[in-house]
Write a structure and sequence with these properties.
The chain contains 17 helices and 14 strands. It has helices at 3-13, 18-36, 39-43, 46-50, 99-115, 136-150, 169-183, 203-220, 238-249, 273-283, 290-296, 325-333, 349-357, 365-368, 371-385, 391-413, 421-439; strands at 55-64, 70-81, 87-93, 122-127, 159-162, 230-233, 253-259, 262-265, 300-302, 313-315, 338-340, 361-363, 414-415, 418-419. It binds glutamic acid.
């Protein structure tokens, strides 16, 4: 089958799933030659099977708001691929959540988890529930209702959810409490747990730390580093928070944060107490970054993206398709060296083309933001051992994993003096899963 015919077939089977098709398209473009040159993969229809989730769960989530009114949301869990380990991936609570969004995230997770070198399959889930403006009690009741269906499908050796946008330590706590009550079992069924009940040190910071460790490896290939560099970051949630900390540690200066409302520009750099203030912004459930501008008296640009500021390094840490063609051109024109994705698929395909054509260092989220799920894998190991590693031990393992992912990307993506990290990540991630599927027969 020709590549275009394959893609047309996937598109016909998945109408109105543009984000999922975007993610499939990118992987297929990278791995097609490897796929074609391996008759065993083709005979076993590995790629045809890989784009089909093993199981999709979709369920009703009824709950009652503080006024006593009944609300109904939709819950999902995509159990995409379990060839190399239990399904693993976060839960997203956001009004933009659809089947397409979660299938794209679940598909990406297969390759990301494979790159971590840890035994984790790919999964993702969530709901169109909007946490914005909700009280703590409403969030608890929603999480309890969500878990009262999800509990029968997951388990520490089956499917291990975690956080993503809108799901942090508080939500994981409520979800875990309900799981434990229904199953009467204290197990490592979720990651991102609190430190007193099975969580891992460094897990909250891990995605952002990992992204900066990865960017640092990319910079090293050009004899560069974060020291003295100006860094533009988008988002203000969990990933951005970890990234800001690590950039500061490595001597860089972060000048932007963004939210759905626009972005702030802090010329003096976001450091010290300002980093703690990011946690307050998230806990407020207001979902706006303008509060930072008021608190620290810095400019706020409503409805705009931070990619128009002059920076050496850009770390998109907010959400999918948040950096478009025009943004990419702005970054190139302003002399940006390196774009490393902390979020999942934040650059549009057109933006990626511009960055790669201009030979800017560019790495996709499935490689660069894998530190979060990798540390979830370390949390699972600690739960199985019934033991906790120290902060230094976890951080060292995370750092080593990010270096290893970088090496895999270079090995499969080197093209003359340029590294195509998209190709490197996709091919390296694909090979391990494809070989495992081959070993396990047609299932
Ligand atoms: N949601 C995160 C991701 O996109 C983490 C998933 C996990 O820890 O399972 O990789």
């Amino acid at each position: 089958m020709e590549k275009q015919a394959f893609l047309d077939d996937v598109a016909a089977k998945n109408p109105a799933q543009s984000e999922f098709l975007q993610a499939v398209h990118e992987v297929v473009e990278s791995v097609w030659d490897v796929y074609q040159s391996n008759p065993r993969f083709k005979e076993a229809k590995i790629l045809e099977r890989m784009v089909e989730p093993e199981r999709v769960l979709m369920f009703r989530v009824p709950w009652t708001n503080d006024k006593g009114e009944v609300q109904v949301n939709r819950g999902y869990r995509i159990e995409f691929n379990s060839a190399i380990g239990p399904y693993k991936g976060g839960l997203r609570f956001h009004p933009s959540v659809t089947l397409s969004i979660l299938k794209f995230l679940g598909f990406e997770q297969i390759f990301k988890n494979s790159l971590t070198t840890l035994p984790m399959g790919g999964g993702k889930g969530g709901s169109d529930f909007n946490p914005k403006g909700k009280s703590d009690n409403e969030i608890m009741r929603f999480c309890q209702s969500f878990m009262s269906e999800l509990f029968r499908h997951i388990g520490p050796n089956t499917d291990v959810p975690a956080g993503d946008i809108g799901v942090g330590g508080r939500e994981v706590g409520y979800l875990y409490g309900m799981y434990k009550k229904l199953r009467n079992e204290f197990t490592g069924v979720l990651t991102g747990k609190g430190l007193n009940w099975g969580g891992s040190l460094i897990r909250p910071e891990a995605t952002g730390f990992g992204t900066v460790y990865f960017a640092d490896e990319m910079l090293k290939t050009k004899n560069e580093s974060f020291a003295g560099k100006t860094v533009a970051i988008s988002g203000f949630g969990n990933v951005a928070w970890g990234a800001v900390q690590k950039v500061n540690e490595l001597g860089g200066k972060v000048v932007t944060l963004s939210g759905p409302d626009g972005y702030i520009y802090d010329e003096d750099g976001i450091s010290g107490d300002k980093i703690d203030y990011m946690l307050e912004m998230r806990a407020s459930n207001r979902d706006v970054v303008e509060d930072y501008a008021e608190e620290y008296d810095v400019p706020f640009y409503e409805g705009r993206h931070p990619w128009e500021v002059k920076c050496d390094i850009a770390l998109p840490c907010a959400t999918e398709n948040e950096l478009n063609e025009k943004d990419a051109q702005n970054l190139v024109d302003n002399g940006c060296l390196c774009v490393t994705e902390g979020a999942n698929m934040p650059c549009t395909p057109e933006a990626i083309k511009i960055l790669q054509r201009n030979k800017i260092l560019y790495a996709p989220g499935k490689a660069a933001n894998a530190g979060g799920v990798a540390t979830s894998g370390l949390e699972m190991s600690q739960n199985s051992l019934r033991f906790n590693w120290s902060r230094e031990e976890v951080d060292e393992k995370l750092h080593q994993i990010m270096k290893n992912i970088h090496e895999q990307c270079v090995r499969y993506g080197k093209d003359g003096d340029y590294v195509d990290y998209v190709k490197g990540a996709n091919v390296a991630g694909f090979m391990k899963v494809a070989n495992a599927m081959l070993d396990q027969g047609v299932v």
